[in-house]
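Hey team,

Filing this mostly as a record. A colleague (T.K.) asked me to run one chain through the structure pipeline before their review meeting, and I want the input and output archived in the tracker in case anyone asks later how it was produced. No errors, nothing strange. Just documentation.

Input sequence:
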Amino acid sequence: MKLGYTLLGEQAGPRELVLHAAAAEAAGFDFAVASDSFSPRLATQGHSPYVWSVLGAVAQVTAGMDLMTYVTCPIMRYHPVVVAQKAATMQILSRGRFALGLGDGENLNEHVVGRAWPEDRVRQAMLSEAVDIILALFGGGEISYDGAYFRTDSARLWDLPDVRVPLGVGVADNRSVRAFAPRADIMIAVEPRASLAAAWDAVRTSPAGGTSSPGSSRKIGQVPVSWDRDEGAAVRRAHEQYRWFLDHRGASTGLPGTSSVDAATRRIKPRDVRHRVPCGHRVERIVEAVRRYVVAGFTDIALVQIGGDTQGSFIEAAEHEILPALRESIP
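Output structure:
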């Protein structure tokens, strides 16, 4: 089990994120994932810098920690050709420590370019074409592509890393697993569902999915926590800034702004957050939350500390309490 730290751009400015990354590596985190958003989900979070500039700086202040976007949407705000160029450059800057995590996005971040938000089926088809283009560019040479959603003419990456950028894709059901497991190196999911991990391994070990063994494919999940010596303060902060996490109906994915997400999640109460998110300083609650992913077959977990101004105390606690407890309890 690899344990990661989340650079959540929605809750901290760019300089702070770079400092947090350096501190997280020093504290013993194995990797860091970074959100790629144009807007926070709730105004109470208060930030959203350009993650690719942040990651370029993070690559220079860290030495061994793996880095990854969690996740980039290559279907509207960015063209897949541009995403491939960003990722290749990051792999060079980080000396082979970068992985590109992809997903089909949220209206909140993508509508800003003035295009209508597609339905789920269309977004998945767009993401599939984007993956084709990105992988072709990673392979070197000049490519042209004429698909249902994307076109590119004589595109080439002139600065390619020595080691190809690993590709991760977010999946939520068997349909998306079938579409992306044969082409991606890493599974990304936000719920500890054993059926997803099993389906991912089954596809990758099938004749159509190549020759990968189940153990060779990373499966990355994410666990939010609200660490604080004052449990009441931890619950309030988690409710104010992260209650959208409990909206598993997916309604917030299609909403266009922070006020919409705020209104849609007002039914979620602090007690609901306390039940779902480890709040306070009880390490065993974090261990149990991570264990659910381990049992489901995940290989990597990135912790998300809720609250931009609490990162220092969380990273200190992670070094001395949280990471040792996780490594002792979970092989």
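Quick notes for T.K.: The domain at 2-229+282-329 is CATH 3.20.20.30 (TIM Barrel). The radius of gyration is 19 Å.
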